[in-house]
């Protein structure tokens, strides 16, 4: 089940992110929880928060800023459920498009986004710092994707 999270969920959200490693900072999550132009959605199973997504409202568009699911819950439908909720929220805001960027090496996320109807718009070269496990590899490109709503 997907619900909107509030400031009372901050501890659960930061604990989840420490395992999900989506790249969202504690300050980014805190700011999103207290912002009228942002929505933090949580995916719950058996009373436990197992995934989340942060979407923000822009003047004409919305942007998916982060999506994270516990490693042991991946491939369970959580990502798809969160994407459906993000798309519904963006449509509720009357956004014209939903934007996102993703590491070019994050193939499972790219598959999810394509399955959810996103198309590729371009590449931002050297956008992401290297992951700790790939520090010698250098910066990674960002794939820019969007979906017209």
TrEMBL record:
Pfam families: Acetyltransf_1
InterPro entries: Acyl_CoA_acyltransferase, GNAT_dom, YpeA/RimI_acetyltransf
Domain N-acetyltransferase: 1-149
Alphabetic keyword roster: Acyltransferase, Transferase
CDD domains attached to this UniProt entry: NAT_SF (cd04301)
GO molecular function, one term: acyltransferase activity, transferring groups other than amino-acyl groups
Keyword Hydrolase recorded: no
Superkingdom as given in the UniProt entry: Bacteria
Listed name of the protein: Ribosomal-protein-alanine acetyltransferase
Protein source organism: Vreelandella sulfidaeris
